[in-house]
Amino acid sequence: MALLLIVLSLACLFIIAVGRAKSNIAEAIPGSLILMSILVVISAELLSVFNFFNFFHLVIFWLIVLFFAALIILRNKYYLRCNFKKTVEQISKNKILFFFISGLLLLLLLQGLFYPPNSWDSMTYHMGRILHWINNNNINHFPTHIYRQIYQPPFSELFIAEICMLTKSDLFANAVQWLFLAGSLPVIVLICREFNFKKKSTCLSLIFICTTPEILTEASSTQNDIVVSFFILSAILFCIRSYKTNSMTDIFLLSLGAGLACLTKGTAYIYLLPLFILWALCYIIKPGNKIPFRILVIPLLFITINSGYYYRNYKLTGSIFGKPEEYYLNEEFGFKKSFLGLAKNTGLHLGIFPFSELTNKAIYKLHHLLGEQVDNPRNNWSGTYFKLDKWNHHEDKSSNFFQLLLIAATVLMVLLKFKQDQKLIYFLLCFPLIEFILFSLLFKWQPWHSRLHTPVFFMFAVPVGYFFGEKILLKDFVSRSALLIITFYALIIIVCNPSRLLLPSYITHRIGVNDNRYTKYFTNKPYALDDYKQLRIFLNNNHGKTGMIIGGDTWEYPLYDQVYLTNAPIAPHLDVTNISKNAGWNEKTDESKIKFIISESKSDTLVFNHKIFEKKQILEYFSIYEVKEK
């Protein structure tokens, strides 16, 4: 029931935003979601200062927020201004689209409720870092073998952590991505309105997003690509508006959106860079425009939002970005390497048989012709190489095949029918193209880059919707058939999501919707289920006496699925070798009480704190060591 505090707070912020937007519901959604997100950051940072990041103090914080939000509504009588008549009229004119999108969102919400968090990154660091925050009662850095728990931007996980703590479960953990997907759709509508799109173009932009496989597979997970996409889209919207109106409100929301984007995912810096360069140039050369002093609000708010994250990183590593162990940026540049990077990033979205097989051959032939290594570690993530599966529809590397075809068709038609008076479509199309090219040129190629491309596909929805809505007739049989195929494919993607199948296990012979919740954690790693069941029992019986020595990609979260209810101490990470070893242990941890060590090591003994630990129990993937008594 405590979750209602966040739900009601968001509802109150929405009502206030609706009142200020003169009953325009679409206008109110991005502002209310951004302000809600800021409150999440404030609550986490403020409570952590006093080691109060726990259920009781979160309840107090959100009660205070709810009280003041309700007070503002009552004093300003905003609730009287919530006229939904206009919205109902708009829905009645677009019934088919409304019910289609509502149906998809409902299906995705149910999928996220039926399944717990179970993506690989969630089991290692997205949800794993939340365990330590709860155990420590703060979001400070801590010693960990999974260094991504430290340096990766934390916003999405902060939101998830507060929901999990208030509900005392992870039932609604997947709903955060879903919420920001639902919030992104009205932002797209508002961007289309800024360019005076026809209704048909706006509808096609929404369909483009709601049928993009990567978006659909991620929307029921605890990844963060949709969350960062929402903030980037919001920054774009308020960039456009602040240029037009010079409004302080738009500049304020632009700053918050950009700051939250970078607090969510590091790729946001690259995606926002061209936006701010273009915005600054347009702002400077705008006739009769003077650069007001209040523009300084943008960097000020941006830094303030990220200040806690920057400070923790700098204090531990000497860098505000946390010094990742692996270098993400390309180490070698040149025409050939840049071209191959673009080819491989584009090729990730051709993962539908037989195009997947043809793409594999083409990429290898290109490397051979240009005399380059396919797996050169200076331009590829260490240990990876290009290989598409026959069907790529896993959330980590889903191919947006039909969307890529639509983008390619838009680019081709623009080039073939170039007109000087079509500046709008060139601008709308060039912006995401520049971002995609910049991303491909700067970052080492990774097999899971299709997931990191999600913000680009959100942005491509606008020019594709404009071109096909304005220039192509959609009344003919071919066009309607294409829409039907894309829609049907989207439904298949949702139902057959490998991580969260909406089919029973006796049909698929995999972990399915009918299995128990704990089993569903392991849809991406079913072979480890038995080990984790045994380790979970062992940890429950030896709280405070067990430590862990594990790898940087080990699943930690499933060992503590009951942490929200029991608040039992989790096993500290021992003998950490990365830079997080300099972070302080939680005061609850007493290394002299460590009697057992869980490790992936196969050696007969381990040494910790000048004590010898002997192998006590061998599981398939783990070993349990017990201290040797003198």
Q: What gross morphology would you assign?
A: globular
Poorly predicted spans: none
Number of strands: 5
The rounded Rg comes to: 25 Å
Q: Mean of residue pLDDT? A: 89
Note the main attributes of this structure.
3 domains; 630 residues; five-stranded mixed sheet; mainly alpha; globular
Describe this structure in words.
- Helix 2 crosses helix 14, helix 7 packs across helix 9 and helix 13 (225-245) runs parallel beside helix 15.
- It is built from 27 helices and five strands.
- The protein is globular, with a radius of gyration of 25 Å.
- Strands 1-2-5-4-3 form a five-stranded mixed β-sheet, with no helix packed on it.
- It has helices at 3-20, 25-49, 55-76, 85-93, 95-114, 120-126, 128-136, 148-151, 155-167, 175-194, 199-210, 213-218, 225-245, 248-264, 267-285, 297-317, 335-347, 355-370, 401-416, 423-442, 449-452, 454-470, 477-495, 505-508, 517-520, 529-541, 563-566, and strands at 546-549, 596-599, 605-608, 611-618, 623-627.
- The protein is mainly alpha-helical and 630 residues long.
- It folds into three domains: 21-58 and 94-317, no CATH class; 335-472, no CATH class; 526-627.
- The mean pLDDT is 89.
